[in-house]
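Figure-free illustration: sequence to structure, shown twice.
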Amino acid sequence: MSFLFSLVLFTASLTPQNVTQFFVVPEQEATFVFVCDGETSDRFQWFTTDGASIGDVQAQRSGTTLMLRATLSRGYYELVHPQTGKRFGVVAIAACVGEKDPFFCMDGAISWLVRKNEPLRLDYIRIAARSGVFMLRDRLRWGQIQPRPDALDLETNAHYDAFRKNCEKFGVKVLELCHDAPDWMEKTKEKYPRDFVKTYETWSQIISRWKSTWGGMEVWNEPDISFGAELPADQYMSLFKTFAYLWKETGCDVPLTGPVVSYCHPLWLDNAAANGLLKLCDVFSFHTYAQAPEMEGLFANYQDFLKQENVPGKPIWITECGRPWKIGPERPPMEQDFLSATDIIMKGVLAKACGFEGYFPFVYPYYEERQNNFGMMSKDGTPLRSMAAYAVMIEELSKAAYVGDLKLSETESRWVLLFENPASPEDLTLVVYTRQKAGENVMTLPFAVRSARRLTGEMLPVEGNTVRYADSLIYLRAARAEVEKYRNTETWMAAIRKSRSETTLANVPAVPVVLQYRYHPDEITPSPNGYHVGKEYGKDFVLEIAATNLSDQEIRTPVVISAEDSNTRCVGPEEITIPAQSCVTFPVTVNLGLTKDTAKNFTRITLSAVDSLVLDFSARATLEQFLDTMNGVKKLEIRDPKNWIASASGKTKFSQTGDAWGVRVHFGEGDRWAYPQWNLPNDLDLSRYRGFVIRARCWDPKNQTQVRMFCYQPRGAFFTANSILQPNGEWQTVKVPFTQFTRCHAAGGDPETTLDLKKVTRISVGGNTKNETLFLEVDAVYLYE
């Protein structure tokens, strides 16, 4: 009998009646109600944010319901039911009142990640509203709401309509995200729609239903990588222009947002800008999962891009920014939870300091992806420390403005950022971030501290001007007059903020014609960098250009075609006529020339017919042709396999065939990568050069291999985020400038490290693949000045 009773206890479950109950008002009695499925203990335990026990509590039982009450001070707690092992996060913080700061948003992804649980969805909206979240990002599956051309269902079993209307009810805006195209539509590489007239019609209907619920509209998600089929930016921009014209014609005043990129990819962004992105978008958005100390270089790169394009003040939203914990448990271990919370918050602090307009931590609900969990709520929907920390950040920095840093000694391992808040003009808020592992920290300041608060909201004791703390991030309050004499305004964040205050060119009106290049995959290979022609330089090839008229009037327009390289010839029609709400196609014959001006790999061609379409092309060239276009080259002696060090997730074999070095790797399960490393000569200084020219080939008939280069220095690894070769088995000569290298977070190292060519000691040529085997041959590697 006792055995059966213990078995019942073991299988019993405990479910919260709702999850809004885990956000409570400090110093007021709160009630927690659970539903039991089976016999279980009435005893619970309380723990602090540090995991220290602060006592037991006996719940009151009524049938299958357990209820307990507690009065909590400000901060984060865990309520534990020892019998079932269930842990529930509790945030004790005052509810947000008054006007919200639009900077504080979240990537909710609720239509995607919270399914078949409408009460939990509604609770998440209520919690966001209570916490001061201005906008929740959501993902709309266009193919789901329009399975047929004549069928448009905005509710579906994902309850899109109900979610948006509930957000509106509770005063939370939605950042809409068009994430795919219906299967019945003709698409480019199975991604972007080609029928822009139907796109216009469908989204006109969606605007009429949901405009009032929106705080912004993102056109696609991460189009610079696989979500955009690894296509050049012009393909994305044809879709974006359709939305821009729709916004103009419908008078939609919701910010139109793009390009939602995952990397600061110079060639992709340059082409997007050339195709009018920054003249048409209201907000520039990007994603990052880098760590807080890396933000200086990343934020500066994006700001430099905007300044270069004469729009330094273009609003910026970071619409995905997370720090995951390891998959497995329903809640992360305490140390991982603190790391996730600290990094998410500090990146938000830096974004606010730089004057960015929107920040969306990723991701609100529990979400496992590969080996990571990005959730800020537990599996049962209760808050983690990251969620508590974000609510505290909103409370501390809502409507605050960055005014500088605290001057510290050069050996200090902390940042101290200063913020002013109009609600308390006599004080400054100090955000203290410790760039070393959290521990027992003591900070003595040259002025009195009025109050100190932990990452998750608990008040810290203050001893005059000394604060003791264990977190990597805390908030202090001090008298502005006392802090002022120690304020430093010459910081990288202040420089970005100043740049953002400069004059910005106004947006230009969208036009009714949308041009799109319809490439033929048997002749042209696209990549995020541009289009690769299967023919040699000097050979003719033909472009098929589609021109869509979104207006209700016929348009007759001249066609103007030009190339930035005077050796390149382009011939097309002088004029085209496009019927109302229709699409016509026309051919353009191109012959690319190879000169020193085109040694950058790509030749830019511009076509104008009301709309302007900018395309970047490269053709096949021999190694000799490339070298002839360059001044100052140095050959690296890489052919001897004995000089290469195996570095792969599989069994590696090096070979030498003729003059070429080769590597073959056989893989098992898991990630499949191979990046053999070669030591550079000790006397070689890469800073004298601008990049590499390599001749190599890789054969993958399934086209599932990405060939990349790496540069390694003692505290970091940098790689070409996009593939540098087409895996078609043919010898290719390509130029790889150092500007294409970005930090590889997966390789570890100091997150503050930037590429320093004087410190690079090794290079790699290798790849990632989904195949069981990777085979790569390299014939030559040169450096060029």
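We now fold a second protein in the same way, so the two outputs can be compared directly.
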Amino acid sequence: MKVPYSWLKDFVEIDVTPEVLADKLVKAGFEVDSIIYDGEQCKNVVTGRIEELVPHPDSDHMVICQMNVGQDELIQIVTGASNVAVGDVVPTALHNSHLPNGVNIKKGKLRGVPSNGMLCSGEELNLTEEEFPGAGVYGILQLDKNLPLGMDINEVIGKNDVILDVEITANRPDCNSIIGIAREVAAVLNKPLKNLDIDYKEDETDSIENYVDVDVRTENCNHYIAKAVKNVVIKDSPSYIQKRLISCGIRPINNIVDITNYVLLEVGQPTHAFDKNELKDGIIVVRQAENGEVIVTLDEQENKLKDSMIVIADKSNPIAVAGIMGGLGSGIKENTNTVVFESAKFARDYIRRTSRELKLYSDSSQRFEKGIDYISQNLAMDRILTLIYQTNSGTIVSGKREYIDKPNNVRFVDFTSKDITKILGIVISDEQITEILESLQFKITENNDIFTAEIPLYREDIINANDISEELIRMYGYDHIQSTLFTNPAQTQGGKTKYQQFEDKLKKTLCGMGIFEGINYSFITPKAFDMLNLASDDSRRNAIKLINPLGEDLSVMRTTLAHSMIQSIGNNLAKSVPAGRIFEVARTYIPKEMPIVNQPNEVENLIIGTFGENEDFYTIKGIIENLLDVFCIDAKYTRATETYLHDGRSANIVVGKNIIGKFGEVHPRVLENYGINQRIYIAEIELEKLFKLAKEFRPYVNIPKYPAVDRDIAILVDKSVTADDILSTIKKTGGKILESEKIFDIYTSNLIGANNKSVAISMTFRAEDRTLKEEEINSQIERILKSLEIRLGAKLR
């Protein structure tokens, strides 16, 4: 918010430099983004009077001026302007001057004649006709001939102010105004605060009842005031109002509109002026809009309304979008003779949503979105009427129309100095507590060591002793807080949880295998489930939809990480990355019920993706086996039925009776959905299950005392028999002396049958207490072969 220094001085006696004041405001919790000196843009330009004017000897359009700029001697300046004459007082740029348009003026010669400066136009001073009368004329800017000579031009055109650009935090909407900042300035400087000038007279012979009635039909309007002014004279605003509006970035229009904008900045309360003659049947109706209603606003844009929006209407049609912008038809015109002023409080969330839906933004909507208190409506209206009265802009009709949904009760907060000490950790004396809070316009009483603070009506952010403590410390000074060690004997040293340590170990292991970590949005497109070929009744289709998504492609919470990984790999391939390995640790969001009532289950998963000519089913299986080995987990692998994985090239990861994940080659149809034309492989593991199974080390096993015996067999089985079926059967039958078993070869050929395969298995036997005999081993092998034959139909080759 831009705060002119001169405007602040209307309310506070400021005896410090802008830099000192800015520093004090920062310490009080207000960030000052910048200090703007209006005069910095225009230097060494003064008022000068033309004492003598002669033609240039070598030019038919230039003249030589002898300028009186308040110095001992006249200054010679050559100009080509045609609108100058002896006696004119004009802006005179002297040697080494700087103009707002970036031009630097130095003395020199024009066609052989010395010129020690330049006479300036309004354009060269960056002025418009609205800012300064005559600035829009082509030629040299003509000034008042009674002005002192040598006067800084910034003082003449009103560009000699200092402006503080103050950032207002969301919890302090009461400071979105000049008077709001002035209250803080008075507190930090320990100066008295001057009240707003409220002084006007009404025509007691006339009543508001003869002009307008107000009917509030929506609960989203908490307070509404209407006042009438007759015999309105439309004219320019006083120069001080125009200059202050311009310094704050608002273009002056006419006295009525300018006064509403002036009060918006000064008090922070948006107001609006309606042309009474445009109100049908003299009634203002505050209501919800009807679906499809149309209004043309002051920016000449047609807006189609919804029933979620609030409008100000007359008996027939909307005349303003409440809290945002007035309608073009009801605006102030040159022939307006009666005005109805509005000052109201609307629900901030409705204003925010309406502004965004209509893409209609204004200073008023910004104020309403940040919050307006209940007392500002009357204060702003009184201030408007004061300015109307002082500028002779019309006759104020007596009485007002007012609606308020609840009384504006005074609030009190009780606290003790011990409460403050407990919250802040430092001692502030009772005298200082009282002094600080009273400087902030709180009314303080003390009884039996209990303070009672009467909260200013505009401070709706003050609720309890914590808020009081915050007010005290920001004024007392945060530098009074001293660092101390914790005194709690139960304090413990900080550190990561077991799960965080597990996750760190997992990521470190994966990075050690040359896999890069990736991060994706938790939001995906609802089309992802079709792209993954999930069944229509798959529970993962039951995804949480976002109320206000960034877009359709990011509109639901993901229930699987597969889509994000396949998409990431596709993006890499599209950018000519030929091969890679990526992993992501992230949560999926599984709703407990639909529609959402409770927080969803957040399940943390690991997804791994690999692609490239050297990657296949066995490389990603090797990654998983290495990862499981790090956490001392033994797993087996069974055929997977995941729809987005290849039927014959995918597997479940099974530990005990639990499936903790799945992996394999992505199904060709799914790859086609993502526009990928080469094989890729992914694995998805539930980390919570993995964490529960993880061990830090394997049990210690003594070094064997007795030798092992290795035996190999080859069996003939049907192709449908899996390796896990064979190994688990051998393991169950092998007894205690079977130490290990593994498949080392698989052979297929029409010679052994089109539906058969030959599987070669290596087995290691060992006993802990003796050397095994040949008969024991043979007997065990016979049992194994018999079991393979019974269970799997296997035959020894």
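Summary for the second example: The chain has 20 helices and 40 strands.
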